[in-house]
Amino acid sequence: MAKVKAKTGLSKFNKALFIIFIILLVATIVVVAMSPAKVAVVQKEAGEFVDEVKIDEFKAGTYGGVAFNSVEDVVKFYVECINYNKTLTADYTENGEAKKYYKLLGDENIDIQNLLVEGQANATINRLVPSILGGIFKGAPKGLPPAANRDPVYDIRDDGPNGTKLDEKESHLTADDVLACNVVDNGDGTINITIQPKAAYLSMPDQDSQGRFFNVLGDISGTVEKISVLSFSQGTIDENFVVNYAGGSGTITVDPKTKEITTADFEMDVHIDVQHANVTVIKDKSASLDIIYTNHFPASDEFLKESRNITRK
């Protein structure tokens, strides 16, 4: 277990997820203030997070005919698989127009858990969460993470360090980014590779351990500043938010002979703490929540159709 000291500041985060958080925060603070919570929860010590391994340990060996003698070997093969699969495309139609997207497209979903104000849960707001989420978050087809677009032509980010561009058609994951990993031989000619990246605060796309593994997106600092109903009784946004990515992992099932990925599942876990929040006339409240963001590959035909009117040819 490695302890990670909290880092303040909030410059980048997934815009859609954060907007959801703000709406839930506002609603929860109002509900809790007007109707005291019935369930008390002991708050964890602020400013410290334990980056704990949550997957099985790595055991050196030969899996599917491939020798994995170290974490470096696992990451190297994983990167090769991601890179190869991002060269594969397939024909689709979107709203009747012919498109060529990644062969392996995935879905996306989010779940909000442990929504607390002043360390307390509220049954009313918990019942409202699904409807709030459903009204804001609309999943879209994704390429293998990290990905900026389902179309490889546009799978390039323009928000890298100092305005540089980041090519997402290749994985830049390194062994140093990995907290834990393992390999399993499925006995059917495929193997599973599971990776848990190291924790990161305020994860930036393709610039840290989480950003090189998951679909973390976008600059939301401007969005936060424009939320007129939210302010702070003391300090600034930078001082009052802690956004911690930790505990999530991803698994790919791959044919080691071809390096083609057949299925993949990613779960990104994010914990947000906010202190000294003012919402309209309600002052100086603390709140926290957990965001569970998942991608499954391949996306179902139903998801493609319902989300973006995409069909496979």
Please give a structural write-up:
The chain is of the alpha+beta class. It is 21% helix and 36% strand. It contains 6 helices and 20 strands. It has helices at 15-34, 71-85, 123-136, 221-225, 237-240, 301-308, and strands at residues 2-5, 39-40, 48-51, 61-63, 66-68, 89-94, 97-102, 109-117, 120-121, 156-157, 166-167, 178-185, 191-197, 200-201, 230-232, 241-245, 249-255, 260-279, 282-297, 310-312. Strands 8, 12, 13, 14, 15, 16, 17, 18 and 19 form a 9-stranded antiparallel β-sheet that branches. It has a 3-stranded antiparallel β-sheet with strand order 7-6-20. A two-stranded antiparallel ribbon has the order 1-3. Helix 1 (15-34) runs antiparallel to helix 3 (123-136). The radius of gyration is 21 Å and the shape is globular. The termini are far apart.
Q: Helix/strand-derived class?
A: alpha+beta
Secondary-structure element string? EHEEEEHEEEEHEEEEEHEHEEEEHE
Rg, Cα atoms, Å: 21 Å
Averaged pLDDT: 83
* Strand tally: 20
- The proportion of residues forming helix, as a percent range, comes to 10-25%
Low-confidence stretches: 3-14, 37-45, 217-221
Roughly what fraction of the amino acids lie in strands?
Answer: 35-45%
Main sheet characteristics: 9 strands, antiparallel
Number of helices, counting only DSSP H or I runs of 4 residues or more: 6
Q: Cα distance, first to last residue?
A: 47 Å
Shape: globular
